[in-house]
Amino acid sequence: MQTNKHETVLSQDLFNKVPQLTIFFWIIKILATTVGETAADFLDSNLDLGLTNTTFVMSILLIAVLYYQFKLNKYVPVVYWSVVVLISIIGTLITDNLVDNMGVSLVTTTVIFTLALAATFAAWYASEKSLSIHSIITSRREAFYWLAILFTFALGTAAGDLVAESIDLGYWKSALIFAGLIAVVTVAHVRFKLNAVLAFWIAYILTRPLGASLGDYLSQPREDGGLGLGTVVTSAIFLVTILSLVIYLTKSRKDENSAVNPVGK
Questions:
Q1: Cα 154 to chain center, whole Å?
Q2: Of residues 42 and 30, which shows the higher confidence score?
Q3: In angstroms, rounded to a whole number, what is the distance separating the alpha carbons of residues 30 and 108?
Q4: Of 19-23, 58-62, 114-118, 225-229, where does mean pLDDT reach its minimum?
Q5: 107: Cβ–Cβ under 8 A, 6 or more apart, which residues?
Q6: Residues 15/74, Cβ–Cβ less than 8 Å
Q7: Spatial contact of 185 and 197, defined as CB atoms under 8 Å apart
Q8: Which structural domain, as residue segments, surrounds residue 246?
Q9: In a domain, 265, yes or no
Q10: What is the number of structural domains in the chain?
Q11: Quick count: other Cβ atoms within 10 Å of Cβ 172?
Q12: Taking the CB of residue 76, how many other CB atoms lie within 10 A of it?
């Protein structure tokens, strides 16, 4: 059957560019979040680049990878997760710049990023009538998606640091608290029918401070409550694990959306 040029181009735009929500999605997300925390610290402190130079270098790299991501017409694990790792680093650096370089309080940054994320969701819904990640099938929806992801990382960093400083429970106890909150959201969705989209975004935000707490626990000195592995070893361990899982997913295609989604869904 013949198809015209418009139909061919349209069909290429219909593949969802976000992976399915398997256990692998959440494992890699938490690992990427941990890398965002430890890699930002490594680049800033160990390589002595400073927050400003680190932010500049990583932003250029993120823009380059995002450009390639937008050119794709389907989900490609290595590219997608590269973007997530880089955004996790940038989200951390944005909050750190505001707090450490500009003296903005964690309370203020938490409020700012909460409002920014809410505004992104409002604009996304007004434009597309859906916040579902199962229909990232156009460039405009993908732009909203990545902007929301950036703000979730920045918000998670600010809120996580605020809770950690206010309660001062230590790294592993903080990790348990955030893991518990994610479990509550999961039960609320499965057992009490909490809206799936709302449950996803709440859990996504909470994985940021969870991953940061895990990263700090592994990398920080023993006298500060950590295991003393350092940012280099911690980042390397998690990056190798992420790479291994991405290679597995690339070969197995277990998290691909094989079907073409109808427009508007």
A1: 9
A2: 30
A3: 25
A4: 225-229
A5: 162
A6: yes
A7: no
A8: 19-252
A9: no
A10: 1
A11: 16
A12: 17
